[in-house]
Amino acid sequence: MPYDRDAILAATELADLADELLGPHRGARVRPWACPIPTHAQTGRTPPLTVFVTRWGEQRWSCHGCGASGTAIDLVILTRGVDVRGAFDWLATRTGAGIELGRAWSPPRRRPPSGPEPPVPPDPRLDDYVVACERWLWSQQGKAAQRWLTETRGLPSAVLELNRVGFDPGARRLARPDGVPRSPGVVLPVLADDGRAVFTQTRRLGFSGDAPRYLNCAARAAPNPKLALYRPPAAAARCVIVCEGALDALSVASAGYRSAAVLGAGLPDERIAKRLAELRVPLVVAFDADPAGDAGASRLMSLIRSNDASVTRLRPPEVHGDLNAWMMAAASIETWQATVCGSLRSSCTRAIDR
After folding, report:
1. DSSP string of 28-48?
2. Domains of the chain
3. Average pLDDT across the chain, whole number
């Protein structure tokens, strides 16, 4: 029986379908789910998949870790192991929206017919927002966020200032471009080569329940570059150390090394690997010491090597798990700098050559 694709999708509430197929995640303002891609290694701490509505009114899901996305049809295919026709049959039975058209069924077409949307440049007001957040962080009202960054996370103020880390007091107290998260939290900007902010991530403080810890600004405010580069006050070597997230990358910068953070690690893609290879420096992948980190590191290193770039692995000690916890175990920043330098010398000598 032929089906009307649009009628089936319109009759399917995608968030409810995700609850049914991926497990319920209720109780949070933004409901996240685990990614349905079998090869996407996930820690489970911050489910990466969310549901949204396109400008054409179609409900879609997107994984902010591996970049997979699709409609309800794709979600059924991935979770139930059926083909496209099987997904139509299942959804039609579930929704009662199987409408016979009297014509041969054909696979769904990508919208709009003219092709994919062109890249959207960052909102020019995004940099002004980051400037305001920088001021808030170093104000009296930002003391709690300061303490969390410098004491709880052990990050030096010089590294925070250089990389323009800030504090957002919330939408009621600070204006922001449409699409920038409205929750209070630490603001971790992605900077262009000229220092302008081109994307932001908000690390919520004091979150609870199923609420995600990290919130990305929406595509209408700025496209997700998937990679953020961080600078130390003075670089100790030529290499760039690639981390799973911004706090680990800032920890590396605290040791005096340039770093990069994969925004939503999952299994990194070709776009990330190509951009790293274009840096033309030795690369060191320092993802977390757990199965998800090992899988992500292996995937990224393979992609980097396919782009004819040099890359090695630096695995944090399992007792610490990640770079920030490893840094916090050091007695001082000087000890941390010596620890990273020694680890690089023992595991990847070429990375520290000037």
Report:
1. SSS--B----TT----SSS--
2. 5-95 (3.90.580.10), 119-223 (3.90.980.10), 226-354 (3.40.1360.10)
3. 84
